Amino acid sequence: xxxxxxxxxxxxxxxxxxxxxxxxxMLLYPFYDYNKFYIDDxxxxxxxxxxxxxxxxxxxxKIKTSGFKNLKLILSSKEFVHLLHCFxxxxxxxxxxxxxxxxxxFPGKKDVILKTMDYNIWFDKKSKKxxxxxxxxxIIDNITKNERYIFDLLIQGSFATLDYTSWxxxxxxxxxxxxxxxxxxxxxxxxxxLIRINKLFFLNDPLQxxxxxxxxxxxxxxxxxxxxxxxxxxxxxxxxNKNYILNVNxxxxxxxxxxxxxxxxxxxxNLQQNKKYSNYELKLLFHQILLIPSFFLESKGxxxxxxxxxxxxxxxxxxxxxxxxxxxxxxxxEFNYNPKYQQIFQFAPNFNYYRIFNSIHFSLLRKYNINxxxxxxxxxIRGVKNELxxxx
Length: 392
Hints:
Layout: H1 2-17, H2 23-28, E1 34-39, H3 41-50, H4 52-60, E2 71-76, H5 77-104, E3 109-112, E4 115-116, H6 119-122, H7 128-132, H8 134-144, E5 150-156, H9 158-161, E6 171-176, H10 184-197, H11 201-204, E7 213-216, H12 230-233, E8 237-238, E9 244-247, H13 253-272, H14 279-299, H15 306-312, H16 323-334, H17 352-358, H18 374-388
Parallel strand pairs: 4-8, 6-7
Antiparallel strand pairs: 1-2, 3-9, 5-6, 5-8
Helix pairs in contact: 1-5, 4-5, 13-14, 13-18, 14-15
């Protein structure tokens, strides 16, 4: 059930943010609204074993339940929401039947006390910080208008710790109120609102590569750090001044090693393509590289806030191996990309127009040519792989 719940968590996030829109829908949403849904044998195996409702749903779609890998379904929004509804209703029945003992004796119960919002800093629009937060304030204003769906909004990352730079994107986690994931009409309405709000992220960072992170409050009874690592959770700011008790379902060390290897593999495949990087792709690649220290330390059982990992990782590698981290940290400090003309896309039907434009725009390469950094990136990757040999 853990595997299936995590997969459905990602599908829920993709759907509510509009990432699941197929190519035609990216341009024509909300007038045309169809979604990609990838499934594989292992996913189907879990569905059949754990969810009779889901199995019936697939039969209604007239697709096979075995013998395929990475099959892409194109579902209407109503079909997609029905799929989510079947799954979460089934999970609710399973949890209700066995939760009494497990929730009282869960070995990973954690109390998380969050910081409250300093309104003097966040809402003084005349101050520099108030100006920096203008996009975030507009998002907050929209979220507070939809409190019937939202239990809390968590501000994460550098905007929560107030050490942001021009590089920083917005990391925001929506906690859905109890019962929302079981209500088809609520999910459909919330999705429409979030896709519209998502355009505001790009006023802060036109190269933003994600929207909201979304966790139903029911997930806190069986919490996986893939939703949001605890070390990040504890540094978050709660918009509605909430605190949390999480029943943490811990992963094995092998999971974190695999997570690290997946990150390295993604970078290697990216570099092997030897392509010309768009603005969007270049910043995303740099971001992936800067996450490797966190993944590496987690594979060693060390869980730190991201900005603290760069100091800790020096204890594991020689300076020449870590040279790319110094280079990218310097780029992060001096980075400044926010052309005002892109604000015209706020009038576009959805946020994908930002992504489409920045996927064909190459101006950052004039300053940050990836070929200047390839050898440093490969040296870093080789060093991390060598350090992992004894763990594999």
